[in-house]
Amino acid sequence: LHARYVLNLLHETRKHLKQLPNISHVSTCYSEEVTVCGDLHGQLDDLFLIFYKNGLPSPSKSYVFNGDFVDRGKQSLEILIVLFTFLLIYPKEVHLNRGNHEDHMVNLRYGFCAGLIAVSKGVHGKKILKMIQNVF
Length: 136
Description:
Layout: H1 3-18, E1 34-37, H2 44-54, E2 62-66, H3 76-89, E3 94-97, H4 104-110, H5 112-120, H6 122-135
């Protein structure tokens, strides 16, 4: 995606998240299923496998993602794009919990910042990184 679209997605995600309380309550009844995921760490293939086995998020398929979306893997930005897009499309069915890897200092240490700057090139990468940190 062009940086303009990524920044727009991040802006809309931030706007949505600011409206939410610090603690989310997710409840289901016996007839509903919720998929709980954690520690994707930039492994886009793992996310695709989860969606393949459990189905895509939808009004009938809820997901809770328990943080650690980025760092270590090579496709952290892609993970964020997919998760943030589903969050905006299905805000009642997709829940994102912040993990310790959604922290700037951890991102510096484990490679997300450097990887994003290298992939995004120059000014756009810095703008995107700043906005992601703002969303986190």
